[in-house]
Amino acid sequence: MQSLGELVSDPTTFMGVPHTQDLSGAKAAILGIPFDCGVHPFRIGSRQGPQAIREQSKLMRPYNPELSDYNPMQRLGLVDCGDVRLTPGRIPDAFEKTAATLERIVARDVVPIAMGGDGSVSHPALRVIGRKHPGLAVIHLDSHTDTTPPVPGNEYNAGTQFHYAAVERWIDPAASYHIGIRGTTYLPGGFPRTRALGYGNIITLNALLDRGIPAVLKQLQAALKGRPVYLCVDMDVFDPSCAPGVCAPSWGGLTAREGLAIVRGLAGLDVVAADINTVSPPHDVMGMTAFLAAALIYEVLVVLCRYRALDTPDA
Fold first, then answer.
1. Has residue 98 been placed in a domain?
2. Model pLDDT for residues 186-225, shown as the tens digit of each residue
3. For the whole prediction, is pTM greater than 0.85?
4. Which of 8, 107, 143, 277 is the most exposed place for a label (fewest CB within 10 A)?
5. Listed residue (233, 46, 210) closest to 144, CA to CA
């Protein structure tokens, strides 16, 4: 007679990795942060992002014969810890619960790979990772710098996280990069305000394409080699033609190929944490954005393997 465990399915996890909070054999862990601030006037839904990414990750396969002919999930002992227990809209409480969860992961020297959620999920994550890794540098791929100053009654939103990261000194802004910036904003003076916070490296989408992705990657490798790096990918860095399901779409963004090339080009850097945010399933088309987010996470795993010399081909 079959056991109950043989008759029911396990929870859907990222690429089918084990669902567990046991980190004893893990070098990296997936964490869902099902949160958005709920303050956008008409485009709310990225709180549903983590499960959408997990569902679309079923389309991913473990081997890339050309670039990574090994199973990065197995090499890293990857586990999916599930989602932070929080209530969207209760912003300070959700931040505290997210931070408490991440603290337990990084205390075990496990690399957290967070799935948002809107861009505000980077707020508690940067606070925790910055304490763990002094001198933390951020590579922020986004169409916005997210350095909006907080105002009374709107202290936290999906555009304030890098303001707080600088003024509260969670990161080294002078060593950090905002890449892919483009499009319209609500406030004037965005670049001077960002530079006044200490961010000296703003690479707009136009500048990225003018210089070429290989040249920018060469700069990142030279500047960030040997220091802890946090990778933050807001999916609106991509053009809506390949990532329509985001909170703040902006035309003229990265293609899927360009975004994957940038992440692959970070191999050799010490990526100590990552978050992929702003997948909004209610605005997605056939799961395209969630599927691309899953592909990006796979590439992050490959970057982690290469830094740890876990990238020899499987027999």
1. yes
2. 889 999 999 999 999 999 999 999 999 999 999 999 999 9
3. yes
4. 8
5. 233
